[in-house]
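Annotated sample (chain length 342).
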Amino acid sequence: MKLARNRARSEPLLEVLGARRWRRCCTSPACIAAGAMTLGDLVAIIGAIGIATPAARAVSGFNTVLNEALASLGRIFSLLDEPATIVDRPNVRPLRVERGRVEFDNVTFAYAGAPAPRTGELHGGGRRNRRAGRPSGAGKTTIFNLLPRLYDVTGGAVRVDGQDVRDVTLASLRGSISLVAQEAALFNDTIAANIALGRAGATRAEIEQAARAAAAHEFIAALPDGYDTLAGERGNKLSGGERQRVALARAFLRDAPILLLDEATSALDAASEARVQDALKRLSKGRTVLVIAHRLATVRDADRILALENGRIVEAGKHDELVARGGLYARLSRLQFADAAG
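Output written by the structure step:
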């Protein structure tokens, strides 16, 4: 605000001073009467002032711009210099994934030291689908963040095939996980390069194979430059469904044994969702899959559904079992499928 005030004061002041100086030097009656200035001289001076004024104004604002830049650099470097809070412990070993069994054992978690309720016990069997459903704020995404150690638990343990995720290397843990989020993370690079982020050194044939598996090849091939088309900042040159299919192709290429799907279809239209759902079924084969979904149609066929409320798992079972119990999941199911029928 101080910089903005100084700028607001200085620019009008420069305009006024420049105009007064020009009037004194160039348009005084004595100057013209004495024949010291011709009409051509007057026009030349007016043109010179018009050209010089923007440059003079830029010089006057240089100090303001410089201070703004220094303040911004200070904030950027303070962030870059921030030490990592999640690091490898001494003498950790690489993760060994055999069955892909994911276990949340009496886990508690709190942001910035605030108390958080216990999540209970969540077991994910090897190569099976686990899905969580509940309105926003119940802790679903937090559960996902604890598995790849984006945060560490404040109590209990998260295990993969019996190995505490804090006792294995971060590189091996995160290398065993693929994430497809609600907002696809795309960069202003070619579509091929965005897919190749799933696995370093992937060939063009492998990239195209992953795109075909994700039902993305057809729309990519129809683009002006095909796989060499730029996706734009945050993928803004693609539709929501196209961005999601590129993200799925990246997950196919990664071929990790554990797959996390965080509302991967919630922002799609019906046609795009159908294509993405088919791709997800293919991607889910032979691996452990955890899915966050508000649309219960997405979770109906899961091996096990977990309903969360206020940070705690309150129900677990298959779709038909949970509907028969008449609890939280049954209420959500009645609301959603009644809306769909209407």
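Annotation: The first helix runs from residue 2 to 26.
Annotation: Residues 139 and 284 are 23 Å apart (CA to CA).
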